[in-house]
Each structure stands twice: as structure tokens, then as C-alpha cells.
Amino acid sequence: MWYSSREIARLESALEDALRRAETAESRLAEERKRLDDIVASERQSKDWFALQITSRLVTKNGGYGLDHEPRTPVATTPHPKGFIREPTEIDEAKLEFYKKCARDAGAPEEDAVQKWEAEMRGEMPTYEMESEQ
User: Which residue from 17, 42, 58, 94 lies 20 to 30 Å from 28 (Cα-Cα)?
Assistant: First the structure.
């Protein structure tokens, strides 16, 4: 059987289109599979927690020590707006006030103290004037 060059070009073009559609469909299928795997994992985790609660109640009722009694809180996924590695505690706030007091006593602007405190809260190692003079 003989095919014209025009017919071969049409068939090759149709093959390329079909391959492109297949690759797109496979990538969409992979994304959907990943999404479903995430859903299944979260469902499994909630069922595991429920089974743990039932077991804990049974053990406690029979005089034993209970297991984990509160659901685990998920780790915050949104970062702090200023880039802090954790939320400031009372100790951190007291440290900030101490830095401000030291800056006032030294005659330096409070903004420098705030910047150094924020750098510490971001996990950076700020440099102090005493260190740079040595």
C-alpha cells in the first residue's frame, strides 16, 4: 500500500497531537492522584487518632494510664510576617524592653535595639558595637 507524502504528514501531525494530549492527561492524572493521596493520608490520620482515643478510654476505664488525650495541633504553615522563628513570649518582650532601656542609657536610638531584637527573633546573630571594637 502506498501513501502520499501529504497523507504521511497528516498522520504524523495527528500522532504528535495524540501524544501531546496523552502527556497532558497523564500529568493531570498524576496531580489528581497526589491530591487524593493527601486526602487519604489525612483521613487515615484522623481514624488513627480516633482509635487512639477509644483505646485510651478503655485503658483508663480499666485502671491503667491513659494515652494521648488531645489532638495534635498542626504546625503553623503561615510564616510570621516579620520572619520570626517563633511567636514572642513574655521573656522575649522583657528582653526587648531591656534592650530599649540599655539603648536609652547609652544614648542610642531605640530603633537600633528593636532591630537587634528582631534579628534575634529571626534566628540571626546580630553584631554589637562592643564586639566590632575589639
Answer: 42
The Cα–Cα gap between 41 and 44 comes to: 5
pLDDT in tens, 60-111: 888 877 666 565 566 556 677 787 888 889 999 999 999 999 999 989 899 9
Nearest C-alpha neighbor of 123 from the set 80, 62, 72, 93: 80
Q: Are residues 6 and 54 in the same domain?
A: yes
Q: The whole model's pTM is what? A: 0.40
- Identify whether the C-beta of residue 71 lies closer than 8 Å to the C-beta of residue 49: yes
Which structural domain range is residue 23 located in? 1-74
Residue 110 placed within a domain: yes
Alpha helices (H) along the chain: 5-61, 90-106, 110-121, 129-133
Q: How many CB atoms lie within 10 A of CB 121?
A: 19
**Contact between 118 and 100 (Cβ < 8 Å):** no
Residue 28 dihedral angles phi and psi, to the nearest 5°: -65, -40
